[in-house]
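Hi R.,

Here's the chain you asked about this morning:
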Amino acid sequence: MLCVQECEDPYNEPVTSPSQYKVSLSELLQQNQLPLPQYELVSTKGPPHKREFTVKCTINGPNALEQFGYGSTKKLAESDAASKMLSHLYNEQQVSH
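And here is the predicted structure, written out as tokens:
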């Protein structure tokens, strides 16, 4: 179980940039001495003027976790995946805030 007692819940503050979720996730993992997330482009669909990217966010380790994100840019898809991973860590794993 992750210890996040000193880490603020990223959902308490408005998101000011797409990379905020990625930063929050990395900080949480570093605080708990876990591997940093890996982002992998899984697919690109649609015409050049209207692309949809799918990115996989993976946290390696004994209990590896994966979440997928979607967006109109790679950056937004990575942010979506990081947001979903944070949500999973806080809700599904029932870690304390």
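One quick note: The CA atoms of residues 35 and 60 lie 6 Å apart.

Cheers,
M.
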